[in-house]
Amino acid sequence: MATYKSKKSIGTLNASVNLSYGGKSIVKALTREYDEVYDIRKTLGTGLTQLVAFNTSTTFLAGTLKDSKCLLVCNEGDSSALLQLKMAKWTTTAGSHAGSQASNIVQVMLHAGDYIVLPNLYMIHSTNSVATAIDGDDSGCSNAVPDANLYVDSNVNLDADFEDTETALQVADIAPFEVGDLVQVGINATTATRIEVMEVTSITDDSGTDQDAAGTLVVRRALFGTSKADKDSQTDSTNGAVNGANVHFPIFNEYYDHDRALSGSSQLIQTDAKGRWKSRNFFGKGRSAEANDAEQGLVAGSIALKFYKSAYQEVSFGGTTSNILINANTDSKLTASTAYAFNLTIDDSSATTISFTTDSTNTNFGGSQGVISRIQEAINTATQTTGGGLYGYSCTVSIVDGRLRFTSNSHLAPHDGTNGSKVLLADAGSGTNVFSGSAGIFPDDAVINAPVEAVLPDDEIIDTRSGTSYANIDDFMYDDGYGKLIYQGNVVGSIVYLTGAIEWEIPSLPNAQFVISAHYSAAFSGGHQANGNLATDNALNDIFGCSVNPKLNAVIGIYTFN
What we know:
It is a single chain. This protein is an all-beta fold. It has three domains: 2-136 and 527-561, no CATH class; 141-308 and 476-518, no CATH class; 312-447, no CATH class. It is built from one helix and 33 strands. It has one helix spanning 371-383; strands spanning 2-21, 24-44, 49-54, 64-65, 70-75, 81-91, 98-110, 115-118, 125-126, 141-144, 151-157, 168-171, 182-185, 196-205, 215-223, 246-250, 276-279, 304-307, 312-315, 339-346, 352-357, 395-400, 403-408, 423-426, 460-462, 469-471, 476-479, 484-487, 490-495, 502-505, 514-518, 542-547, 554-561. An eight-stranded antiparallel β-sheet has the order 10-31-18-27-28-29-30-17, with no helix packed on it. Strands 3, 4, 6, 7, 9 and 32 form a six-stranded mixed β-sheet that branches. It has a five-stranded antiparallel β-sheet with strand order 1-2-33-5-8, with no helix packed on it. Strand 22 and strand 23 (403-408) form a beta hairpin.
């Protein structure tokens, strides 16, 4: 006899294991959010009986569950029970990840009172004992720079000319695409290769039997500030709107139009002034041409991004013969109620003269209306004045290690002569030059410390006492394996493992460029799949059970939180 219970709820599951031995204890706990609870209790004879089945297909099958955030299987009777866990068989040799049509059974004995707990459903049988289910058919990416073209070739071409009146793209292979994707034809503003960005709303396979080969992408057209492409205008054979032309995955910050420059005159892959990023794919990574989404997507738990630190330039005081370390109470020796000036370049700006006037009573660096306050006010005014050379940029002035530091508020990569982050101090273009060597304790600009470029933080930190290295976790944004993005202990965004769609907001990292790391093209890519297709499944399919004792029944309880 079996009893089934199902209820909708939204709550938090707290699970723990407490081991006590020899006066010691080990406690391990996990927390999961769930909205469905299933309690299944079955009495088993000696014949195999299905206890639970999982199926992630879009069509819900009676008697199956789609997911489990925690699965507890208990022997609640007096007889021992045999469990059979059914899963797919994969080849995980590097460069040849593939599922087979064969199923493998793991057999587990549960004696009376025994139990097993599975925190998730990822489970395959591998034919290679060395290679793992996360390494994939390639090496993934490690601190990779996203493509500066702002698009990545899908490696799929148009299968027919594309007219401005059509609502669907005919493509040679639908396998890499997912509903909700953004796709792009064209690569720039030139007529023959003009960009159109579209959203995929449905996908149809020409054969009607498989998510593979030629098919149709139904799309919403001309999005994010683009206009409809047409084969009569976008005539380029490679990147136009004609049969055989490339279809791309666009990469731009979707909080804005596709061609919006967020810092300076150049368009970069970067967060905005609020530290936000949003895109429908993981910078073109993790798409597979395999049917039925085999190897499609990213490996949960493998995502890591790190961001550039800001460029800056420091002023050391004391000239060439001494070293004066300043603090907030240090007197600048500038003349009260007097105007001084210097030239400042921030990121892509032109060199701009900053003029500030000292307070009538406070010539110290710190304090209300002190020198730093007056300099900062002047910089803020310049960066917020339309038409000025510093308009749209920003910079913070502070005392760091006894020196006056001018720090760009962007987190762009080092300036390459066209774009990026930099701070440059120089003699004033007009007015009384504060870097003349004779203005209070301010030095001549010739002895100002050299500007420091923006840098990426190191992957590891080395303890100088022990020499031990450990991950520099505070400088990475990473995923928790359940779609949440974490930065410095806080949830800041989300990621979809199948598509790579990603978004986050980190206010402390405005106008930031970054590098990316992830595993993909692997058995565990794209979230768990359990739909009975053993060539693509990467999760537990079924659990069967029976009593071991020919004279006694076994009682199995299954508790799963979905």
